[in-house]
Amino acid sequence: MSPVSRGFGARRRETNDRLPPGQYLTTDFPVLSAGPTPRIDTSAWSFTVRDERGGSRAWTWDEFRALPFEDIHTDIHCVTRWSKLDTTWRGVSVDTLLAGVETDAEAAMAHSFGGYTTNVPMLDLLGGRAWVVTEFNGAPIDPEHGGPARLLVPHLYFWKSAKWIRGLSLLRRDEPGFWEQNGYNMHGDPWREERYW
Ligand SMILES: Nc1nc2c(c(=O)[nH]1)N[C@H]1C(S)=C(S)[C@@H](COP(=O)(O)O)O[C@H]1N2
Ligand SMILES: [Mo]
Q1: Ligand 1 closest atom vs CA 115
Q2: Could you read off the pLDDT of 74-123 as tens digits, one per residue?
Q3: Fold assignment, 44-192
C-alpha cells in the first residue's frame, strides 16, 4: 500500500472514530430553534449565575468581555442525527463563571432569552467541558445560532447548548428543562445514544 492511500485510510478511520453511533456528517450548519430568534442588543445583555441558596452574581456585556476567553476546537452532535466536525468557538469556561461559588448543586438549568431552558449535570459543566461562547469561526455568533452568547457543551447532544443564554441557575436536585420535559434525555451523551428517556 502506498503512503498516500495509507494516509487516506488513517484519516477516514479517524473521522469515523469521531462520529457517535447513529449520526451522519454534515458540513453545513443547520439552524434548529423551537421558536423565533430573539434579537438581543449587547447593551441590554447580562449573564447571571444563581446558586441553590438564592445568591447571585451578574456580568454586563463589557464585564463579561473582560473575563479570560479560551479558543475551543470541537465536534458537535445534534440529536436529529447530524454531526459537524472541527468547529471553532471562543468563550469563557463555566469553571471561570463559577469560580468561588460555594455549591453542592447536582445540576444547573441554563436559561435563555425567549424562555428556552435545558438542564445539565454539574459534572458536565465543570472541568473544562463547557463554555459560554460569543464567537464562531472567528466572528460574532449569528443571531440564528445563538448570538450574542450561547452555552457550548460539545460532549453532550447540541440541544444542551442553549442559544441566547442569559444565565445558569444551580439546582440542588436535577430538574428537566424544555426538551427534557418533552421526552429528551436528562443527560444526553451522544456516545451512549442518550437521546430520549
Ligand atoms: N434558546 C434555544 N437554544 C437552543 C435551541 C432552542 O430552540 N432555543 N435548540 C437546541 C437544539 S435542539 C439544537 S440542535 C441546537 C441547534 O443550534 P444551531 O441552531 O446553532 O445549530 O441549539 C439548541 N439550543
Ligand atoms: Mo437538536
Answers
A1: 1
A2: 999 999 999 999 999 999 999 999 999 999 999 999 999 999 999 999 99
A3: Sulfite Oxidase; Chain A, domain 2 (3.90.420)
Q: Ligand 1: which residue has its CA nearest to atom 22?
A: 159
- Which atom, in ligand 1's list, is nearest to the CA of 30? 21
For residue 4, how far is its CA from the centre of ligand 1 (angstroms)? 39
Query: 4 versus 59: which is more confidently predicted?
Result: 59
Q: What is the pTM of this model?
A: 0.94
| Ligand 1 atom nearest 79 alpha carbon | 14
Nearest to 63 by CA among 80, 78, 43, 82: 43
Each domain of the chain, given as residue ranges in start order, spans 44-192
Helices (H), the chain: 3-17, 61-65, 94-98, 122-125, 178-181
Cα separation, 49 vs 28, in Å, equals 33
